[in-house]
Amino acid sequence: MNLREPSTWGRSHFALGHESRIVAIALVAGLPAVLVSLILLWKLDFTPKVQWTLTVLILVFWLGFSTALRTRVVLPLQTLSNLLAALREGDFSIRARGAGRNDTLGEVVMEVNALGATLREQRLGAVEATALLTKVMEEIDVAVFAFDNHRCLRLVNRAGERLLALPADKLIGRTAEDLGLSDCLEGNQARLLEASFPGGGAGRWDLRRSTFRQEGLPHHLLVLSDLSRTLREEERQAWKRLIRVIGHELNNSLTPIKSIAASLDNLVTKEPRPPDWLDDMRRGLAVIGNRGEALSRFMEGYARLAQLPPPKKSPLDVGTWIRRVVRLETRKNVGITPGPELTIQADGDQLDQMLINLVRNGVDATLTTGGDVNVGWGRTLSHLEVWVDDEGPGISNTANLFVPFFTTKPKGSGIGLVLCRQIAEGHDGSLVLENREGAPGCRAHLRLRL
I need a labelling partner for 360 at 20 to 30 A (CA). Which of 12, 26, 340, 392 fits? Predict the structure, then answer.
């Protein structure tokens, strides 16, 4: 015989529910008193009618008390069960009454009510956040698609509908292959894409892809933004700026050339010629030559700016680089504030050209004020920082500093600072020029990623 059979049999045949156990405990608790009462009743000298009447009353009271105790215990539990069922169904408006802090059951009811209120607030917040997200997705001019793990479309916004030239009800459920988006779900998660779509035409697109989980299953989030329109507008603005600057420079040179050429033509055709006509011819031709040379420098500067090659990086000792460039400046002694000795990966020739321009600009600014120029460097956790401080008059107009061909120098080309910033950005860095705080002059601040 299996030794586990009695216990198994006992659990399967005599296991009582919670309500039955309450009644059984109440009956067992009152049984001694009932027995004592009945024994005394039947031992005393009462008539049989009285004995039976009292016996029935005792038994009825005993059973009635047990049943009332069962009801008193079960009803609050049923109320809690109904509350929890409502919470499970998503109904957070039901509350239990009569809860108080004066007993344990009241505290349980209050905590369940508080849980319902918390869940209600959280659901309202989630609904409002979802509504806001839905509204934002509808209004943004970026196509958003969500695909499940079977590459079937599950979500699309209005921009995505316009891009594919179909409404959402005809897109949802279709695969990425059917929609022509299969290539977007492959390759790098962030890249530029040359593609053509039914509603967007051919162009360049910024592709962003990430993953998320919904109901425990992986999904792909695909975001496509059209760069063609933005690039065309930026290109148009760049052409307008370039034409404006080139036109200004050409007019500055061609206007005097045209005027002087007309004067020289009149001088040559005039009869008789004045005695000093040869000197006038030489001076006029010299002006024309100077303006032509200025135009040549202008075009050389533009070509140098447009044809800057990508940097060829190699190890570069920062201290040696800065000291070498400072020694090239002979008009003024440039001070050095040494920093930590470190080596970076950079194009030494391009950094030489950039720092030479910055130091030269600082010295040019101090020639009229007699101030000093100082070059220093330091480092942060991720960047090398180099600065050139001068005690010149400072910058009066910072908005045009990096505008190509803008210059405040009589013989400047307006290329130096633009070229310097282009070199810095080619090294994943930045260049900022600003007036110094608490001191006269300007600071050129270069940051290069280590």
Answer: 340
Q: Which residue, chain included where needed, has tokens 């405040």?
A: 408
pTM for this model (two decimals): 0.42
Task: Tell me the C-alpha to C-alpha distance, in Å, between residue 175 and each of 147, 179, 420.
Answer: 8, 6, 50
* Helix extents (H) in 328-376: 348-366
Q: Which residues contact 181 (CB under 8 A, 6 or more apart)?
A: 145, 222
**Tokens standing for 192?**
């530029």
Are 350 and 426 in contact by the 8 Å Cβ rule? The answer is yes
How high is the pLDDT of residue 278? 79
Amino acid at 174: R
- pLDDT over threshold 60, residue 256: yes
**pLDDT for residue 400 is more than 60:** no
Mean pLDDT over 436-441 rounds to 88
Q: What is the 3-state secondary structure (H, E, C) of the chain?
A: CCCCHHHHHHHHHHCCCHHHHHHHHHHHHHHHHHHHHHHHHHHCCCCHHHHHHHHHHHHHHHHHHHHHHHHHHHHHHHHHHHHHHHHHHCCCCCCCCCCCCCCHHHHHHHHHHHHHHHHHHHHHHHHHHHHHHHHHHHHCCCEEEEECCCCEEEEECHHHHHHHCCCHHHHCCCEHHHHCCCHHHCCCCEEEEEEEECCCEEEEEEEEEEEEEECCEEEEEEEEEECHHHHHHHHHHHHHHHHHHHHHHHHHHHHHHHHHHHHHHHHHHCCCCCCCHHHHHHHHHHHHHHHHHHHHHHHHHHHHHHCCCCCCCEEEEHHHHHHHHHHCCCCCCCEEECCCCCEEEECHHHHHHHHHHHHHHHHHHHCCCCCCEEEEEEECCCEEEEEEEECCCCCCCCCCCCCCCCCCCCCCCCCHHHHHHHHHHHCCCEEEEEECCCCCCEEEEEEEEC
Query: Taking a C-beta distance cutoff of 8 angstroms, is the pair 363, 413 a contact?
Result: no
Name the DSSP letter for residue 299. Answer: H
pLDDT, average across residues 346-360? 89
Average pLDDT over residues 407-433: 74
Neighbouring-strand partners of residue 330: none
Average the pLDDT over 356-369 and give the result.
88
What pLDDT, on the 0 to 100 scale, is given for residue 320? 93
State the chain's maximal CA–CA distance in angstroms: 173
Cα-Cα-Cα-Cα dihedral sign, residues 82, 84, 85, 86: positive
Q: Rounded to the nearest 5 degrees, what angle is found at the Cα of 167, between the Cα atoms of 166 and 172?
A: 100
